[in-house]
Amino acid sequence: MVRAEYTQRSALVNAFFCLLAQHKPCYVANGEPIPPTIYASRANRHDRHHVFPRQLLAVNHFSHRDYNSISNICLIAAEENQAFGMRRPGSYLADYVRQKHFARAMKSHLIPYKPLSGIWVRGVRKAYRQFRRERAELICKAFEHEAGTKLFRTG
Q1: 126 contacts: CB under 8 Å, gap ≥ 6
Q2: First vs last C-alpha separation in the chain
Q3: Among 52, 98, 114, 115, which one has the highest count of C-beta atoms within 10 angstroms of its own C-beta?
Q4: Looking at residue 43, what is its pLDDT?
């Protein structure tokens, strides 16, 4: 799951974006649903946001395979993405964490957001590794929920 890059054309990547769309992504700033016309087109690649910004990860010695992993991508409108900039998610999300719609918005993007989640961890390397594991788990569970069966794990 974490090895699939969002820039690659594959069934898994297409299914991932369908899964995110199925969860009806919301704007982080106000919790309102993002209209599907904003993110549903292949032409709207600028609305596919790196949760941990790629430049931030690159300067912390992560490869393009790491920062372009589908586990690091969500459907955020370009204007929100630009407002977030190169800041760590713990920084740009701190502006919204106390708003009543925050949990719903994070769930709509399948982003782990609880207080001990990777997005809040200090130190980019440790934070991103933890976040990627947590997000992959959420994505796998969401795929399995949609399929009605276990797809990725045994037991």
Answers
A1: none
A2: 18
A3: 52
A4: 53
